[in-house]
Every structure is written in C-alpha cells, then in structure tokens.
TrEMBL record:
Reactions the enzyme catalyzes: L-aspartate + 2-oxoglutarate = oxaloacetate + L-glutamate
Catalytic class of the enzyme: transferase
UniProt miscellaneous comment: In eukaryotes there are cytoplasmic, mitochondrial and chloroplastic isozymes.
Cross-referenced Pfam families: Aminotran_1_2 (PF00155)
Residues annotated as transmembrane: none
EC number: 2.6.1.1
Keyword Transferase annotated: yes
Quaternary structure and interacting proteins, as annotated: Homodimer.
Keywords, alphabetical: Aminotransferase, Pyridoxal phosphate, Transferase
UniProt protein name: Aspartate aminotransferase
Occurrences of domain Aminotransferase class I/classII large (ranges): 30-395
Length: 402
C-alpha cells in the first residue's frame, strides 16, 4: 500500500529556534549561543528569578491542580491588565477590557489573529519590516492576509520615521497594524515618545487598529511601567487597542507559557461578548491554559514585597545587557575595527541588530562556533564577561575586510 505520508517534506528549520538546535549539536568547547532571545547570567547560565523561586515556595503543596477556566486565571489576568494599562486605569474599573490568559506571547498573538479572521474577515495585518519572524507564521496560519510597513532604516541603523508615517497614511482606512510596544525585535530601535504621539495621531486620522506585541516589558528601560508608555499614549488618544503580553522574558518564565491577550472594547457588554468569543476559540484548540505559570505570575504581582523584588531583578537583567553592549562596542574599537559600532549601544532591549550579512554570520558559525540568526541579530542576553572578547574578535575577523 502507498504510504500515507510519503508526500510530507521536512519543514524548513525555524530561523530562531533552529539556531539553538544547531548550537546544542556542536561539540566545540568554545561555542557561544547569541541566537534565541533568552536571558543568561554572566556565566552564560539560564536564570530563575528570586521572586519566582519565592513564589514557587509559597505555592508548593498548597494548591490543587484543577483545570483553570477556559479564559485562564482571573487573578493573573487582573494583574496583567494593571501592568499593561496602568494600576489605576479607568478601562479596568469600567470593565471595558476583554482579556484571557494566553500561551505566552505567541499564543496571545495567535489567538488575536484567529479572532481577527473570525470577526473581521476582510481585514489585513500590517507587519513591520523587519519583525520577529514568527509574526509572519502566526498570521499566515490564521489565514489573515499580510502587508508590511517600513520601520527600519539600514543606513542610519535607526527608525525610518518618514517611511513609517507614509505607510501608515497610505494604508487603507481601518487597517490593522502590529506594533512592538517596546524593545523592537530584531532591531532594538523604538520610536521616541514624540514619534509615538505622531503615530498615534495618524492612526486616529486613519482609523487604524493598533495591536501591540509586548514581549519585552521591562527590558527596554529596566522599568516595566515606563516600557508601557506607547500603549498609554494610544489609550490617552482614545484608541481601542489589542495587546499581547508575555512573561517569558521579564519574569523568565519561558517554558511555562504564561501570557495574556487583551482587547479594549467600547463598554462592559462588548467586553463580555469579546471575552466569550476568545474563550470559544481557545476551547477546541487547547481547552484552557496552563496553571503553574499563572500561579507564579499572580503570586508575584499581587504581593507588594515580591513585586518590588521582581522590579529590582528586571532592572538587573536590563542593566547587565546594557553593560555587555558597552563591553562589546569597546572590544571592537580596541581591536581597531574600521566600522562604526555606535548602534550597539544606541539600540535597546535584548537584541543588537548588528548589520552583519548572512554570509558573515555563516562564517562566525563555521569558523568560531558562534550561533546567531542569519539576519545579523545578536542576542545581547547571551553575551557575558567571559565570551565578549571572543565574540568581538570573531566579529572583527569577519567584518574587517568589507
Ligand atoms: N513577540 C516577540 C516580539 C518576540 O520576540 C517573542 C519571542 C514572542 C513574541 C514570543 O515569546 P513567548 O515565548 O511566546 O512569550 N522571541 C524570542 C524567542 C522565539 O523566537 O520564540 C526570539 O526572538 O528569540
């Protein structure tokens, strides 16, 4: 009998998680992984935050393991909304936000994309160029047509603000836009507060819908509240917004899949309807979200002492990355690199969008066992005091002749 699956070709490697696979398979003792955006301590080891350890101690042995409701933990959602929309937000008081716990940031984006397809089937999604590669997969699998908008200016290694504004103006009225709330991945380039205000104003004129992916709240400035500024600007301007929150990075809960999807509605009745439909999307997909991460999140964020500890720890992670930016730049300059590396310290968040070509990245991997995505993105979270000189030297070797 003919095979059922003979026609199935191997899927292409994921451009980010595939890097981790290749890194793990390399036996070299010198190998360095600056691929995936996952925080490491200065010894290159994964970090479990102290506030998380303490929350786990408090939870241990005291909770049952029943299913959460389809929409997830109400307590975790309440805390997430305060973090994104502000502690005293009227939208929260007025119950205008439809929100469900999601399978981390990816799951929140996907749930929104499915919701968009079901209830606004004629809309498209505008995605920045470049963006996190998985955004394209998410909206593709949800069958929402994609367009791109200008974001990055390669020559200045900064924001292409006029290109961005033109694309916002030229999109059909009422378009959906995916915006990175802070610490844009992969470029590390965010609009200034003033530029966000102009973007928000133009969204208003064009009646566009802003969907914020906030995967790095706390990693841009070191302060989660400040990092929600873009969303607050849009809220002040009276926009309805959507927001995907992730606790993978800022609480280090990567594998726990803890996140939240929220949609600001006109009133409480609309929010109840939207939430019920988000739950209806979740039910046949995964039924209800995982419990443990939600418990950790709600335990930390609802306890003033643990929350203070968390804020200190987020700041610590952001600061270590800033220190490594400086160290990498200084090392390259000391090696006499003829290129400008100013952008390493100008860019913010977890990543440095180095400007290296795919061929240069291939050389780094082949000759130096340094693993990163082929778009030249360096996860600064993987750079340490121990490997920064080695990394700088390798970068210098592959870039000096160009
Ligand atoms: N949004 C953005 C912008 C993002 O960079 C990530 C993860 C996510 C959402 C999803 O994270 P989650 O773990 O689902 O909460 N980015 C890193 C990891 C990955 O690719 O999955 C990365 O870019 O390396």
């Amino acid at each position: 009998m003919a095979s059922w699956f003979g026609h199935v070709e191997p899927a292409p490697k994921d451009p980010i998680l595939g890097v981790t696979e290749a890194f793990l398979a390399d036996p070299s003792p010198d190998k360095v992984n600056v691929g995936v955006g996952a925080y490491r301590d200065d010894n290159g080891q994964p970090v479990v935050l102290e506030c998380v350890r303490e929350a786990e101690r408090r939870i241990a042995g005291s909770m049952n393991m029943e299913y959460l409701p389809m929409g997830g933990s109400v307590k975790m959602i309440d805390e997430s909304l305060k973090l994104a929309y502000g502690e005293d937000s009227d939208f929260i008081k007025d119950k205008r936000i439809a929100a469900v716990q999601a399978l981390s940031g990816t799951g929140a984006c996907r749930l929104f994309a499915d919701f968009q397809k079901r209830f606004l089937p004629d809309t498209q999604i505008y995605i920045p160029t470049p963006t996190w590669a998985n955004h394209h997969n998410i909206w593709r699998d949800a069958h929402v047509p994609q367009r791109t908008f200008t974001y990055y200016h390669p020559e200045s290694r900064g924001l292409d603000f006029s290109g961005l504004m033109d694309d916002i103006k030229n999109a059909p009225d009422g378009s959906f836009f995916l915006l990175h709330a802070c610490a844009h991945n992969p470029t590390g380039v965010d609009p200034s507060e003033e530029q966000w205000r102009e973007i928000s104003h133009q969204f208003k004129v064009k009646k566009h819908f802003p969907f914020f992916d906030m995967a790095y709240q706390g990693f841009a400035s070191g302060d989660p509240e400040r990092d929600a500024k873009a969303i607050h600007i849009f809220l002040e301007d009276g926009h309805q917004v959507g927001c995907a929150q992730s606790y993978a990075k800022n609480l280090g809960l990567y594998g726990q899949r803890a996140g939240c999807l929220s949609v600001l509605c006109d009133d409480e009745m609309q929010a109840v309807a939207v939430k019920s439909q988000l739950q209806q999307l979740a039910r046949p997909m995964y039924s209800n979200p995982p419990l443990h991460g939600a418990l950790i999140v709600s335990t930390i964020l609802s306890d003033p002492e643990l929350k203070t500890l968390w804020l200190k720890e987020v700041k610590g992670m952001a600061d270590r990355i800033i220190g490594m930016r400086k160290a990498l730049k200084e090392n390259l300059e000391e090696l006499g690199s003829p290129l400008s590396w100013e952008h390493i310290t100008n860019q913010i968040g977890m990543f440095c969008y180095s400007g290296m070509t795919p061929e240069q990245v291939d050389r780094l991997t082949k000759e130096f066992h340094i693993y990163m995505t082929r778009n030249g993105r360096i996860s600064m979270a993987g750079v340490t005091t121990g490997n920064v000189a080695y990394l700088a030297n390798a970068i210098h070797e592959v870039t000096k002749s160009n």
